[in-house]
Amino acid sequence: MARAGLTTAGLTRAGAELADEVGFEQVTVSELARRCGVSVPSLYSHLASSRDLKTRIALFALEELADRAADAVAGRAGRDALVALGNVYRDYARQHPGRYAAARFRLDPQAAAGSAGARHSRLTRAILRGYRLGEEDQTHAVRLLGGFFHGFVDLELAGGFGHSVPDSQQSWQRSLDALDALLRNWPPAAQGPSGR
Amino acid sequence: MARAGLTTAGLTRAGAELADEVGFEQVTVSELARRCGVSVPSLYSHLASSRDLKTRIALFALEELADRAADAVAGRAGRDALVALGNVYRDYARQHPGRYAAARFRLDPQAAAGSAGARHSRLTRAILRGYRLGEEDQTHAVRLLGGFFHGFVDLELAGGFGHSVPDSQQSWQRSLDALDALLRNWPPAAQGPSGR
DNA sequence: GTAGTTTGCCTAATGCCTTTAGGCAAATGC
DNA sequence: GCATTTGCCTAAAGGCATTAGGCAAACTAC
Lengths: 196, 196
Description:
By secondary structure, chain A is mainly alpha-helical. The first copy, chain A, has a domain at 61-184: Tetracycline Repressor, domain 2, CATH 1.10.357.10. The first copy, chain A, has helices at 8-22, 29-36, 50-73, 78-95, 97-103, 109-113, 117-127, 135-157, 168-184. Chain A is elongated and about 65 Å long. The structure holds a DNA duplex.
């Protein structure tokens, strides 16, 4: 039986493409096998399980996204960098909705530890160098931005900002404006316990 | 054959509970049937499909969440309302991770139109009354907050802010502080095209 | 080049999930 | 009470995930 020349990396890439075509949720070992012209069980020579496939696609997407983010923010600072970084996430999600969903896949702790997640965090932290934030507030800001980027993009992709005025592109821009202003005027920590 | 007394609403609630137990992704018609003590095909008297079940659970969760949000913001304004609203989302997600995930399920346009999604939007808009924002900027702020609430909570739940310092509770509080400050000092629209 | 070993492909098989069809009897309506 | 509707069941079919074992290509060592 001639070998089809499959590799784990190749299957991961094919899986990522399939994800963008049919949606990450619809990616199956069976469909991938059909796409590669081999029988379903053959894929188990290269993949441990369906979950293994999804994990690999997720890691691939996170890496790809981090590479784009790194390129986009290189040589930029302050507001320029903030906009560039945010746009990377939004553009990637719109160009590659399946991969973007994959990047949101719940990884097990071990896989997560080896993922590009930390790169994303570092890149976000890097753009904050253009703002005057203390160590701790920088971490808060990283998480705020991370949450906003992901949340806005996810809601938008899900149609949450559907065809209503103003369009979501404007909201995106104004949100980035607002966040830039916020980062330039980050409020000091309150004196006592605040709320909960 | 005695009737088990199943109803669509009852199955939806049982499905929501199952979601919190095993995770929304693991909810199946088969498991629900086992839980109710009936055969799998029996459920098709009350549910159109597995997707119908998930859609119903999603609508249920969105409604439940909107009720909680309405209660929490009633009689509050400004920063107090902002914190209360944000906390509803975060608390719900932590208490009911499966239902929260269900609330994020991609509904088809028809189901989405009849969902509590618009209530959520209105509630967020309502808390913004305590801030001086123009009509359009209010919408931008609704989307920014919606994105942040969802994004932060989702990343947190996924372990994205794992056991590192400062803990995510502090980041949550500081983020709400920051957003309150932002809303009180919302930047005016820039003169010309900004960025993209 | 040859022999032994490893590896990647296949088919068969198993089990789980989703769904449909048709039968039977409980429940409902007149 | 009778006719109709409805909710339960079993049987069946198809799809997906996965394992086991066989065969031959590919690799390694001498």
